[in-house]
Amino acid sequence: MTHTTDKLVSMQQLTQKIHRKVTCVVWHPDNENIMAFGTQEGRVGFFDLEDKSGVPKVMSHFFTNEIYKLQWAPIKDESYALFTTSEGKLVYWNIETPQ
C-alpha cells in the first residue's frame, strides 16, 4: 500500500471460526470490503471488513473436501451470489442471507 488507512483489522478476529487452512480467497467484484474464503475442511465463509465485530460469517457446511475455488456471479436485482463446486455438487450462497 502506498497510502495510509484508518481501517485496522485484527488477525485474531479474522481467524475466529476458521479451524483449518484457508485454501482460496476471492474479493467481491463491487464491494472491496467483502472477501470470501474456502477452507481445507470444506467450509465457505466471508468477511465484511466494515462489520464492527470483525468475525467471519461461515456458511452451512456442505462439503467434506477442500475448497479450491470460489466465484462471484451476478444474480437478480444487481446483487451477487458466491458459487463453488466440490464432490459433484454446485452450491451457491447469498451473502445477504447467510445460513
Automatic annotation (TrEMBL):
GO terms for cellular component: nucleus; SMN complex. One of its GO terms (molecular function) is mRNA 3'-UTR binding. One of its GO terms (biological process) is spliceosomal snRNP assembly. PANTHER family: GEM-ASSOCIATED PROTEIN 5. This is Anaphase-promoting complex subunit 4 WD40 domain-containing protein. It comes from Callosobruchus maculatus.
